[in-house]
Amino acid sequence: MEFISYEVTERIARIVLRRPPLNVLNIAMMQEINSAVEDATRRGDVCALCFLAEGKHFSAGVDVGEHMGDSAAKMIEVFDGMFRRLVEFSRPTVCAVQGNCLGGGCELATFCDIVIASENAKFGQPEVRVGVFPPVAAAWWPLLPSSKRAVELLLTGEIVDAKSALEAGIINRVVPDAALQEEAEKTLKSLAKSSAAVLAHTKRALSVPLRQI
Fold this sequence. Notes:
43% of the residues lie in helices and 19% in strands. The chain is α/β, with parallel strands linked by helices. It has a single domain, classed as 2-enoyl-CoA Hydratase, Chain A, domain 1 (Alpha-Beta Complex), CATH 3.90.226.10. 41% of the residues are buried.
């Protein structure tokens, strides 16, 4: 794979975004993510999936150039397919976020069940400011417990720090920058101790609202 790395160790599947400095999601990269999620879904030895990213930033979003012209339809198909596959992945998903996490990258991160952010992380859906609709966040964020603030972020395109994202309910917790990887691994080890069958049944139940979108 050219733009991500993917491995399964000790019952945990890990997808690492590897297109620094901003890990912008292009069609080829999202196709690789889709292939990795499909593999993790098929495997009986996987109890959780974790997204991470190389470099200083998680992702600045989808490649703007692929929003236009002949590539636009393909980009939408692959982007939508990424989330459809995650809905079908009936096990917990974890995301470790550092730096900028914007647009489609923010949608990918906050779609995960457990989102751990470093103190330097920034979250936002700035698409609305440039005339682009954020489809996944628009469907998903209003279902979150702190949906009023989440909806405000969607409508204004405001970019917020990790503490504000936590208050808005779009992430689970904030840790010091140096502790991000350690905290993610701690969470994954906890999940790996659980029954895969119980996790799968629980995740399927939690995914019912998403399957209706």
